[in-house]
Specification:
six-stranded mixed sheet; HAD-SF_hydro_IIB; 2 domains; globular; alpha/beta; HAD-like_sf; Hypothetical Protein, Haloacid Dehalogenase-like Hydrolase, Chain: A, domain 2; Cof; phosphatase activity; about 260 residues; Rossmann fold
Length: about 260
């Protein structure tokens, strides 16, 4: 029996233009009416994630959610737990390689996102995030001073840029796609499923009582680990092969609602 549903946001619950469809909202409410907990598990930083959680309109902001790709467990009032961080030696190794390869990046901690190179694509992306306080995103002259980083975030515009990002190597870290033209580097131990396992334990829910829906490589651990792992139709092929079920609808076609109505409700 499914007691908890965890949903990725971008390209899963959200449409391409970052909306939550009426059918998806209705399906989530139907699950909640049956006593199933609904949470989000996103690579977004907490404040950005809360904007969309509140837009669902079902009081989900009171629930705990997984943010920063598994780095934090939080609700609208507090960060309940930071799941870990990149140790300083690994952090400096990755940072040094980004500079050598001339790869601009953002660095996420549990409370802020930092960058040092202005006018990079991610500046434009995060500058458009609604409802996020500007002090939350800060420019620093020297990123090496940051402590307790959760992850590096990169945006690539060409295959050559992607190859440079993928060439970064550091033992104990993992590099993966986190969305369209987005790559992340974090510790292997930090992922959505590990955080969801902790979150579910707060309510006495076992991992085999969880259903997870996603589309990108950072969703693979939760899709693999949950009792029921599902992927929307537009998911990456590398993700689909790990899913128990691949939906017949995309994120722009109420893909979450289709999966919930067919396999949960």
């Amino acid at each position: 029996m499914v007691r908890l549903i965890a949903l990725d946001l971008d390209d899963t619950l959200l449409t391409t233009d970052k909306q939550i469809s009426r059918k998806n909202r209705e399906a989530l409410k139907a699950c909640m009416d049956r006593g199933i907990r609904v949470v989000t598990a996103s690579g977004r930083f907490n404040e950005s994630q809360l904007v969309f959680i509140k837009n669902v309109g079902l009081g989900l902001e009171k629930e705990y959610h997984v943010g920063d790709g598994g780095g934090t467990i939080f609700n609208e009032d507090k960060i309940l737990k930071v799941m870990g961080a990149i140790d300083k030696s690994r952090y400096l190794s990755v940072l040094s390689q980004t500079r050598e390869l001339k790869v601009p990046c953002f660095v996420a901690t549990s409370h802020n996102m930092f960058y040092d190179i202005p006018d990079q694509p991610l500046c434009r992306v995060y500058g458009k995030v609604p409802g996020v306080r500007r002090p939350y995103i800060e420019q620093l002259e020297d990123l090496s001073a940051i402590e307790n980083a959760l992850k590096f975030v990169f945006s690539y515009q060409s295959e050559e840029e992607l190859e440079r990002i993928q060439s970064i190597r550091c033992d104990g870290t993992i590099t993966f796609h986190a969305g369209r033209n987005l790559m992340e580097i974090t510790m292997e131990s930090l992922n959505k499923f590990a955080a969801l396992t902790e979150l579910a334990g707060l309510y006495g829910i076992a991992t085999d009582e969880m259903a997870c829906i996603g589309d990108s490589e950072n969703d693979i651990p939760m899709i693999e680990g949950a009792g029921l792992g599902m992927a929307v139709k537009n998911a990456m092929d590398s993700v689909k092969k790990h899913a128990d079920i691949v939906g017949e609808k995309t994120n722009d076609e109420d893909g979450v609602a289709w999966l919930l109505e067919k396999y949960i409700l």
